[in-house]
Prior knowledge:
Oligomer: single chain
Number of helices: 10
Radius of gyration: 20 Å
Amino acid sequence: MAPNDEIAGKYKRFGCKVLLVGEYLVLNGWSSLAMPYATFGGGLQFGQGYQPEFNWSHLVDFLMEKEIPLNFTDLQKDLSCGLVFRANIPMGYGLGSSGALVASLFDAYHTSSFQNLNDLKLILARMESFFHGQSSGIDPLVILVNQGILLTPENVISVNIQQESLKNWYLLDSGISRSSTSFIKHYREELYPHHTSEITNLAAHNGALIEILTQGETKGQLQSGIWKAISEIQLTIFSKMIPHQIQELWQRGLETDAYYLKLCGAGGGGFFLLYNNSIELPENIHLLKL
């Protein structure tokens, strides 16, 4: 049996996503901002002898049960012909590896189009819940539309992120994979109830940073000051989400003002965000430019 040529021709590579602003606070209704990131990615393809890390038939059964508008006839035919998803997105790093797979499936096999981003986010969230039990849908949405997405308490908005405002931003590789479940539980049960004033203060700084990234600003000193404030607050209240070796690097940046660190998603491992405030970058660490 040959692959479905019409569908196979639609396969394309998708990148991953980076959460720039709003980690954890989005759980309480404050805004967050995410962007697509093309350094890592993946896509559907046909490959002989390749075994996926999950059971495709379980995924298909799940999607059918959720009444996801996909062409399941073509999808199952192509799976029987060796359809796989191949990616170089690090797993457990918060970059949306499952979101990229969901975006790829929806792009290739959807039978209904969604012009409204809110509706599209909801259907993608239902698809990605196969992997996480619960999903906001933001990861696959950012990856699918390949645009910056601002999530506010009222709406989901496509935005243009000012690249000039990201010129000093880097991803710091902790070298540690993690699961976000326990950290989210810790935030909901321990942090938010006892640090409401600090978290409210953090939300105000997050809002200012989102404004800079979406509207642009020419004074780097303004962004640097906001970054330092966010870094200080996060180091204090999110210490459990920061590995010990990263905490030492984090503190050094605050003491020298050479750079500042903040979470990139749930923390615990994966990538952290670094704002370079000096001419030279810190040595002996793995950084990727945004």
